[in-house]
């Protein structure tokens, strides 16, 4: 079935990576000094790779669109990072992390990649602690763990609700150290606009200096994209405002396959939309589900305040439907369950598009423990709540403050209102085992690639994958390619391929500023987001997707004839930046719908209404769809499907059950 | 497009680039919702400007959830506006009243030159980190994470210092445009951890030298930085930095 080669090494699953590492060709130190690597993106995947490759001796250029590499959106990850350390002695192991991740991904990821991820997960924690990342500790001085969805062990390491920040600052420090030593050249406020290919190999990029508007050419023996996910195709998401698909999409247009674009993660616990002015959605960490219980009233359209609804009139629907995992089911399952309750008329709040996340029971339980620690036996409820609130504050204070600031409500007193929102994209550029796309010399790491999470990512696995790719995988695998490139001298950026690529980029910019239409970029972005959310969001149907494809095509035509971009291309022009990104999102949106329409099954973050069990669970079709859908871009925004068959040799494929 | 009923007058700093002079320009806004964030209010302003054929106000922003440190407005004389412990992106219009006049300026410091409108160049912060804000450990050299127990209180104190988002509010509010709160947060995070000891004194010396080279001012202990820091970074970090800086004369490798 496969017509693409994933280059997975032969041998036992558990020894593939070890064997690969010890047999991969090396590049000697003097050759490394002449080999240049371009890294686009400075988040966990990009910064860790840039720092590590520079430490190894390569010449590295790193690019980010923000004003500092420290601001990449990895910084906003809240909950934690998984690692199979088994510090809690609760039966965790590499195999169990591997198994949970494959199952969590609804059997749509590659066994070999996921096993490697589980293997290196332990090294990440060691590396970060060595860098001085202040992960949470217990009184004995050892590292603390907590639980995340889709697992029954405690393997998640964290730093309050700011784990992404601390891990990114660790990688950023490592990167700045290399910058200080002159081993990495950092280009901030630069946006990649084209990949340059020479004789079929990626040899550089075209980037725009966002301050001056200047178009620059940069050569590299290899190019790495660590440019994050494409959730902003929905306009409203938990992504940063600047998060975009442009680098990946330009690579796609130069021949790199885009895999499983329809796999999007809708995170169950976000602050609900409050009005049309909304520019982004804010996540409330999955870690809150450790201590929060999710419920809706048992009565339809119940307008009473949460505190007035007695215990026996509350429906803790996750605990009811999934007794084994309860509130800690994976994200796709929790999101769909919330949508189901709201669609059935049980939603809460003004919009009725919200469910409660309630901390009362656990606050009281913590309070009891605290009371007994300080010698108060049989404490009254008020004392328990007071003491318990302190514990909750210590655990989740920053999240509760953020909730209060955004909603104007006090979550210590009333339950949080939450609703699912677009959060992460499992799809991305297709890569082989070496993290190389099908364009030679073009690599893709972190959220920007498709490889490790299948159809649904488990909580606390994104940080793990970003850092695994950057610190421990790419630095080895890229050597295999570069060892064959040592005789290639730096290619002049006067080469016709650079000239041509620069012209392509300039043509697009000039077209955009010269349309001089009547509608702003945001206008089109919002309309695209609306189509995507309604028809390619939490639930999809053949009819809706077909409509969406037509609507997006029409939107694309309208965009290119009526968008208004004020100012010029040779200055700092934020509207022009946005316009280029939205143009790419529109094309990607169409591909996402095409991919969702092609996949006649439900799996993980892809739920087709036509394919569900009687209980409303996702119904996979392993016989026909156990493959990676890798799309090739064709002239005129057309897409051709290639398939990579997924073989499960070490795990028995079964229907996912969290009951 | 707005849903609210607040009317506002904005006085916004407009400056084409770092070679031209800037000035405050007045804008009237109607129909602002109290549930909007401050930046969403600016989105409304920009949408209006674009519709009228004018250039939108350029301002830095990205995550809009208070953690990336990119947003940087000086609002009514205070960085990140009137509320404590909140970044501009997390400031909501319910913190203002109908009819208010709001003055919005960029961060002002010689070491943070204006790029355009409300956007400034904070790359000096990166150079301070590059001078020593790290532990020199290459990838692949780490021992098992739990082989180095660290008392919880110490780890928590390091975390509190590490919570700095590098936004630059401390510099913007300081009458001397000092970057000491920023630099000391990183210095103290690493000084409180056993991993940070080997380079402790070398680090403080090189980071302070870089801070001076960038043109940031000195600290005169007014404490405005701590008061305005959206992440509550403590002035104690500066004390620790000063102590280490003093000790470095005697305790750095060069001195020993």
TrEMBL record, chain A:
Residues 525-658 form the Fumarate reductase/succinate dehydrogenase flavoprotein-like C-terminal domain. Keywords: Cell membrane, Electron transport, FAD, Flavoprotein, Membrane, Oxidoreductase, Transport. It comes from the Bacteria. GO terms for cellular component: plasma membrane. Its cofactor is FAD. It is found in: Cell membrane. Gene3D superfamilies: FAD/NAD(P)-binding domain (3.50.50.60), Fumarate reductase/succinate dehydrogenase flavoprotein-like, C-terminal domain (1.20.58.100), Succinate dehydrogenase/fumarate reductase flavoprotein, catalytic domain (3.90.700.10). It is a peripheral membrane protein. PANTHER family: SUCCINATE DEHYDROGENASE 2 FLAVOPROTEIN SUBUNIT, SUCCINATE DEHYDROGENASE FLAVOPROTEIN SUBUNIT. Belongs to the FAD-dependent oxidoreductase 2 family. FRD/SDH subfamily. This is succinate dehydrogenase. It comes from Pedobacter petrophilus. The lineage of its organism: Bacteria, Pseudomonadati, Bacteroidota, Sphingobacteriia, Sphingobacteriales.
Automatic annotation (TrEMBL), chain B:
Its cofactor is [2Fe-2S] cluster; [3Fe-4S] cluster. InterPro entries: 2Fe-2S_ferredoxin-like_sf, 2Fe2S_fd_BS, 4Fe4S_Fe-S-bd, Beta-grasp_dom_sf, Helical_ferredxn, SDH/FRD_Iron-Sulfur, Succ_DH/fum_Rdtase_N. GO terms for molecular function: 2 iron, 2 sulfur cluster binding; electron transfer activity. Residues 155-185 form the 4Fe-4S ferredoxin-type domain. One of its GO terms (biological process) is respiratory electron transport chain. It comes from the Bacteria. Pfam families: Fer2_3, Fer4_8. SUPFAM superfamilies: 2Fe-2S ferredoxin-like, alpha-helical ferredoxin. PANTHER family: SUCCINATE DEHYDROGENASE, SUCCINATE DEHYDROGENASE IRON-SULFUR PROTEIN. NCBIfam families: PRK07570.1 (NF005746). This is Succinate dehydrogenase/fumarate reductase iron-sulfur subunit. It comes from Pedobacter petrophilus.
């Amino acid at each position: 079935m496969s017509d693409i080669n994933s280059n997975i090494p032969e041998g036992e699953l558990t020894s593939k990576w070890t064997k690969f590492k010890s047999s991969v060709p090396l590049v000697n130190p003097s050759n490394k000094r002449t080999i240049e690597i371009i890294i686009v993106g400075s988040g966990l995947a990009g910064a860790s790779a840039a720092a590590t490759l520079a430490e190894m001796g390569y010449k590295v250029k790193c690019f980010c669109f923000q004003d500092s590499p420290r601001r990449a959106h990895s910084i906003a990850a809240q909950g934690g990072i998984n690692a199979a350390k088994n510090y809690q002695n609760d039966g965790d192991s590499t195999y169990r992390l591997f198994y949970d991740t494959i199952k969590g991904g609804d059997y749509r990821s590659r066994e070999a990649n996921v096993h490697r991820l589980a293997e290196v997960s332990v090294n990440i924690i060691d590396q970060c602690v060595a860098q001085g990342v202040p992960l949470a500790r217990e009184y004995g001085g050892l590292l603390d763990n907590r639980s995340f969805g889709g697992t029954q062990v405690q393997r998640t390491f964290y730093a309050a609700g700011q784990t992404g920040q601390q891990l990114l600052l660790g990688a950023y420090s490592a990167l700045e150290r290399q910058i200080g030593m002159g081993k990495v050249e950092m280009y901030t406020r630069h946006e990649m606009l084209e990949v340059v290919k020479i004789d079929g190999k990626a040899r550089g990029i075209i980037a725009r200096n966002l301050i001056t508007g200047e178009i620059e050419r940069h050569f590299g023996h290899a190019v790495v994209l660590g440019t994050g996910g494409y959730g902003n195709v929905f306009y409203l998401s938990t992504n940063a405002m600047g998060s975009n698909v442009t680098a990946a999409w330009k690579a796609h247009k130069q021949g790199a396959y885009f895999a499983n674009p329809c796999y999007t993660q809708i995170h169950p616990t976000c602050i609900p939309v409050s009005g049309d002015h909304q520019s982004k959605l804010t996540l409330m960490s999955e870690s809150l589900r450790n201590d929060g219980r999710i419920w809706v009233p048992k009565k339809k359209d119940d307008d009473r305040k949460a505190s007035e609804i007695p215990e026996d009139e509350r429906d803790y629907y996750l605990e009811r439907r999934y007794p084994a995992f309860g509130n800690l089911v994976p994200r796709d399952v929790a999101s769909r369950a919330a949508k189901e309750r709201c669609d059935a008329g049980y939603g809460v709040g003004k919009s009725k598009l919200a469910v409660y996340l309630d901390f009362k029971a656990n606050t009281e339980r913590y309070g009891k423990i605290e009371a007994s620690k300080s010698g108060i036996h049989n404490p009254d409820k008020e004392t328990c709540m007071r003491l318990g609130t302190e514990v909750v504050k210590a655990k989740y204070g920053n999240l509760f403050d953020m909730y209060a600031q955004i909603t104007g409500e006090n979550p210590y007193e009333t339950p949080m209102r939450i609703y699912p929102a677009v959060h992460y994209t499992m799809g991305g550029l297709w890569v082989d085992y070496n993290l190389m796309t099908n364009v030679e010399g073009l690599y893709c790491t972190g959220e920007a690639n498709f490889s490790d999470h299948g159809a649904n990512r488990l909580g606390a696995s994104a940080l793990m994958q970003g850092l695994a790719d950057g610190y421990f995988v790419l630095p080895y695998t890229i050597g295999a390619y570069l060892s064959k490139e040592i005789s290639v001298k730096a290619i002049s950026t006067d080469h016709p391929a650079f000239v041509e690529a620069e012209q392509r980029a300039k043509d697009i910019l000039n077209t955009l500023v010269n349309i001089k239409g009547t509608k702003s970029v945001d206008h089109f972005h919002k309309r695209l987001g609306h189509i995507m959310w309604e028809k390619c969001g939490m639930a999809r149907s053949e009819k809706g997707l077909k409509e969406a494809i037509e609507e997006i095509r029409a939107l694309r035509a309208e965009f290119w004839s009526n968008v208004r971009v004020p100012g010029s291309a040779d200055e700092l022009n934020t509207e022009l930046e946005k316009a280029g990104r939205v143009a790419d999102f529109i094309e990607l949106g169409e591909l996402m719908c095409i991919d969702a329409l092609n996949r006649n099954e439900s799996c993980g973050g892809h739920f087709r209404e036509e394919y569900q069990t009687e209980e409303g669970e996702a119904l996979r079709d392993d016989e026909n769809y156990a493959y990676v859908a890798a799309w090739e871009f064709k002239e005129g925004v057309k897409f051709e499907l290639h398939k990579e068959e997924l073989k499960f040799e070490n795990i028995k494929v079964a229907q996912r059950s969290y009951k | 497009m707005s849903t609210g009923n607040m009317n506002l007058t904005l006085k916004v700093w407009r400056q084409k680039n770092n070679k031209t002079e800037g000035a405050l320009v007045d804008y009237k806004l109607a129909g602002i919702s109290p549930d909007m964030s401050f930046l969403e209010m600016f989105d409304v302003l920009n949408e209006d400007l674009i519709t009228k054929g004018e250039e939108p106000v350029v301002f830095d922003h990205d995550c809009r959830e208070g953690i990336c440190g990119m947003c940087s407005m000086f609002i009514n004389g205070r960085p990140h506006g009137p509320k404590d412990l909140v970044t501009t992106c997390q400031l909501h219009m319910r913190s203002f009243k109908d009819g208010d006049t709001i003055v919005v300026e960029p961060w002002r410091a010689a070491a943070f030159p204006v790029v355009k409108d409300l956007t400034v160049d904070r790359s000096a912060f990166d150079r301070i980190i590059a001078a020593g804000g790290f532990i020199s450990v290459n990838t692949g050299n780490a021992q098992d994470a739990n082989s180095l127990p660290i008392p919880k209180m110490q780890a928590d104190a390091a975390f509190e210092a590490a919570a700095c988002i590098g936004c630059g509010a401390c510099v913007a509010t300081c009458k001397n445009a000092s970057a000491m709160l920023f630099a000391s947060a990183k210095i103290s995070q690493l000084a409180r951890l056993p991993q940070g000891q080997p380079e402790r004194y070398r680090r403080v010396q090189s980071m302070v030298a870089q801070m001076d080279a960038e043109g940031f001012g000195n600290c005169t202990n007014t404490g405005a930085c701590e008061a305005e820091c959206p992440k509550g970074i403590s002035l104690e970090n500066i004390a620790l930095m000063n102590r280490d800086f003093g000790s470095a004369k005697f305790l750095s490798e060069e001195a020993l």
